[in-house]
Amino acid sequence: MAKRVYQAWKGKNKFLLGGRLIFGPDARSLFITVSLIVVPVVIFCVFVARNLLHKFPAYNSGCAVLIVAIAFTIHVLVLLLMTSTRDPGIVPRASHPPEEEFSYDTRTEIGGRHTPSLTFPRIKEVMVNGMLVKVKYCDTCMIYRPPRCSHCSICNNCVERFDHHCPWVGQCIGQRNYRYFFLFVSSSTLLCIYVFAMCALYIKFLMDGDYPTVWKAMKKSPASVVLMIYCFVALWFVGGLTGFHLYLIGTNQTTYENFRYRGDNRVSAYNRGFLNNFIDVLCTEIKPSRINLRAYVQDETARPPPASRTRDVEEEPASSPRVKVEDDLEIGGDLLKISRRRNYEEVDEEMGGRNSNELHGALSESELMVGSDTQVPVIRSDVKNSSWGRRSGSWDLSPGVLAASSSATEGDMPSQKSTR
After folding, report:
1. In sequence order, what are the beta bridge partners of 105?
2. 103-105/117-119 β-pairing
3. Burial status of residue 407 (CB atoms within 10 A of its CB: 0-12, 13-18, 19 or more)
4. For 151, what's the count of Cα atoms within 13 Å in the CB-facing half-sphere?
5. Which of 357, 362, 401, 397 minimizes the C-alpha distance to 379?
6. Which residues are catalytic?
7. In angstroms, rounded to a whole number, what is the distance separating the alpha carbons of residues 69 and 389?
8. Which residues does residue 109 pair with via DSSP β-bridges, in sequence order?
9. What values do phi and psi take at 117, rounded to 5?
10. Which of 27, 111, 174, 409 could pair with 88 as two cysteines, CB 3.0-4.6 Å apart?
11. Residue 261 contacts residue 267 (beta carbons within 8 Å)
12. In a 10 Å sphere around its CB, with 0-12 CB exposed, 13-18 middle and 19+ buried, how is residue 308 labelled?
């Protein structure tokens, strides 16, 4: 059965509802973020907002305090889910490197032979708004990253207009969810301000009634004090984050670009002015996702080897193993002939030219009888039974040679007597 894209996904993302929701690998931190929002609001509704219902008698406006708190909380949670469950702008991976960008360098020499090596440019330059922008090649995704795209090491994906990876939402922040992330952070800031203001108002109502001092009013409603402290601390984080991203939107930067190029004093190719930058980030239509997680994975056909590589291999027949073995055999045969010829010369020198013709004839006959494959053992056995093939050591002849010389001497004696 064919798999869907989310089932064969190579990144570290997690999926729910059959690939309809996509999370980062640290999606569990989302429960902590939700609890940090919901628990304080529940405490506020039970111990503060309920007591404020009768403080605004006109038109039952006290109920608005509770309704606004609940509606604001739901709004923040929806923005959180839209940020963490949405495709941030993942660029699909390639199944193989871009072949048109590769070249074969035949100048590489290994072992005395030219071996083709695979080379391709790591950085390319593209024109963006009249300025040259460098784009890099991603080894993991096997693509040239689009401008402002970066690879997230946590999710193991290339993300368009990569801002950062937020552990609080468990997702990368990129082109397709940055707007919801900013709205989530700014709405959380407003919620903190609202809860802090309502708690302070309730303390003020207590001081105007039966608890004239601040300390007595705080003892009467300790929940208000705890919530005020909590909101004050949270404002330093979400409030500071909101201000920082307001600056980034106004200058059309990302968090990644701001930290990386902070000291370069470079002119941004994407800065179109304060108002236009806000319109681009918050008001333009969000691009559709480039990945279809519910689509079926297509079987990839095997690609033929590159023609340039085949051509390089065909141009090097001398480097094949068969030719190398044949060369080695020819060299070995030449060495055997040289060794045999040297043995002949040494025998001639030691015998002083005596019976050299008979010796060469005997050796030649033995070679013909045994064959070319056993030439070396014949020569070695002959030399082994005598001392003719040695350059040093004893010069005593072997018993076989002595017997041959004595028989030859005895055969010559009758001829000498007859001549006499």
Report:
1. 117
2. antiparallel
3. exposed
4. 17
5. 362
6. 166
7. 111
8. 114
9. -120, 150
10. 174
11. no
12. middle
User: pTM for the whole thing?
Assistant: 0.67
User: Consecutive sets of 10 residues in the chain, 420 residues long: mean pLDDT of each?
Assistant: 85 91 92 96 94 77 89 97 95 81 53 56 80 88 91 94 94 96 97 96 89 88 95 96 96 92 77 91 91 81 49 45 46 51 53 49 46 43 41 44 46 44
Torsion of CA 64, 66, 71, 76, to 10 degrees: 130
The helix (run of H) or strand (run of E) holding residue 13 is: none
- The residue to which tokens 């996702």 are assigned: 289
Count CA atoms closer than 13 A to 223's CA, side-chain side: 16
Amino acid at 170: G
Beta-bridged to residue 126, according to DSSP, are 133
Which residues on adjacent β-strands are paired with residue 124? 135
Where do we find the tokens 């072997």? 398
Torsion from C-alpha of 218, 222, 226, 228, nearest 10 degrees: -40
Residue holding tokens 């003020």? Answer: 204
DSSP symbol at 374: G
3-class DSSP assignment, residue 22? strand
